[in-house]
Amino acid sequence: MDDLRERLDGMERRLERIEAERAVEQLMHRYVHAIDVIKDAEVTAGFFAPGAVWEGQGNLKDFRAEGLDEIREMFRGNPSMLPFTAHFLTNPVVNVSSDGAEARGRWHALEAATLFDGETAVWLIAHYDNDFVKHHGEWRIARLRFEDRVICPYEEGWARTRYVSPVTLERVAQPRPVAPEGQDDTGDCP
Known about the structure:
The protein has a 6-stranded mixed beta sheet with strand order 2-1-6-5-4-3. A two-stranded antiparallel ribbon has the order 7-8. The chain is of the alpha+beta class. The protein contains 3 helices and 8 strands. The radius of gyration is 21 Å and the shape is globular.
């Protein structure tokens, strides 16, 4: 009987972990749906825990909001800066703490967007690396880290333009590969 109780307890713990992982994944789905479709700052702020941080990394390191008021305010301005967005999240990895009260999740993100000028269409390739907490029995985002790898014009692609600023529209070309020392980098055969 003790063996059966242990097995049932183990199954219950595994089920709780799986349910928590799934709940965190669904929270991220609802979050990107809100910023892509609903575009309501109040709704978006509702996915965050009190004291949460939204942190841009990479080229977006100047974007940061601490606490629900700043996060809400950031998302009030988001539709004018990015009037169209469509996030595609892939490769989820969610790890739940042993006590089931916290989690960490990582996703690759591909985002199609239109910038504030209404004419510049871009691809964003990024990573989410987020911390989550249970707040009043519901999962919330405690710290969202959004690190862009590429923000490139749709027409030019990431092979030619590595980054276009969503604030100034300034473009940064993709650096040319440097030939290893002692090799000709002109492409001509010796």
